Amino acid sequence: MAKHGKKYLAVAAKVDPNKAYAPAEALALVKETSITKFDATVEVHIRLGIDPRQSDQQVRGVCLMPGGLGKTVRILVFAEGEAARAAQEAGADYIISDDEGYNKIRGGWTDFDVAMAVPEVMKKVGGLGRVLGARGLMPNPKAGTVAPSSDIPRLIREARAGRAEFRIDKTANVHVPIGKVSFAADKLTLNFAALMDALKKARPAAAKGVYIKKLVVTSTMGPGVKVDANLAQSMETV
User: For position 110, which CATH number holds?
Assistant: First the structure.
C-alpha cells in the first residue's frame, strides 16, 4: 500500500470511507480535498456489473459535457482533398492527408488528444493501429470519430467544448474526466449528470442485473469519494 503524506491524510480524514454520498455532496468534497498546486482534473470511476470478456457486453460511448472540460484539446483529422480543407477551416490543429503524415505517426508521433477521420481514408488509418490503438487514439465509428466530411466541423466544435469518450476496460471499469476542481460545484454536477445519462444509454442489451455497481469521484492525487449509485442514476439532465 502506498504511503501518503500529511497533507493527503489531513484531507482524506474529511471523507467517510463507509459512506456513499449524494452526487453534489461528493463533488463538493472532491473540490475541498484537492491537494495539488495545479488545477486538478475531476474524474469519475465506475465499476459496471457486466462481463467485459463478452463481445455483446461492451460499453463504449461519448458524453458531451455541458460545462466543458476546462482543457485545451489538440485535434488531428485524417482526410484528403475537400474534406481536408473543410477540417482545416473548422479549426483542426493537424491534418494528415499524405504518406509523410502517416509515416510520422507510424514512427511514434502522437502529440494530439483526439483523432478523427472520414470513412474514405480509414483503410490507410487502420495501418496505424499499433501506434494509435495503444494510446486510445484510433478513430472509431462507435465513438463518433469516423464521420462524413460534412460532420467533421461539428465534431471539432464538440471536442473543443467538452467531448469525453469512454469505454470499459478489462476489469469492467470506466474512467472519465468531468472537469477541473476550479469549476463551480453546479457545473461539475451538470457534467456528472450528463455522464450518467450517456452511460445508461450505452448499456448493452445483454447486460443483466445491477448495471452500475460502484461509483467513486476523485481529483488528481486526491482521495476517492464514494457516490450513491442509485441517486446518481436518478439525476436529471438539462
Answer: 3.40.50.790
70, part of any domain: no
Q: For 174, phi and psi rounded to 5 degrees?
A: -125, 135
Q: Which uninterrupted H or E stretch holds 123?
A: helix 122-125
Please check whether residue 40 is in contact with residue 34, taking contact to mean a CB–CB distance below 8 angstroms: yes
Q: Flag whether 66 is in a domain.
A: no
Cell of 3: 504511503
pLDDT digits (tens, 9 = 90+) for 133-144: 988 899 988 888
Q: How do residues 73-123 score in pLDDT, each as one tens digit?
A: 899 999 999 999 999 999 999 999 999 999 999 999 999 999 999 999 999
CA 11 to chain centre: 26
Question: What's the total number of domains in the chain?
Answer: 2
- Which contiguous run of DSSP H or E holds residue 45? strand 41-48
What pairing do the DSSP bridges indicate for beta strands 163-167 and 173-180? unpaired
**Burial label, 78 (beta-carbon count in 10 A; 0-12, 13-18, 19+):** buried
Look at residues 218, 209, 213 and name the one whose alpha carbon lies nearest to residue 229.
213
Domain boundary among the residues 141, 160, 179 is at 160
d(CA 147, CA 79): 11
Q: Model's pTM, two decimal places?
A: 0.77
Domain residues for 228?
6-59+168-233
Q: Per this entry, what is the length of the chain?
A: 238
Residue 85 contacts residue 79 (beta carbons within 8 Å): no
Flag whether 69 is in a domain.
no
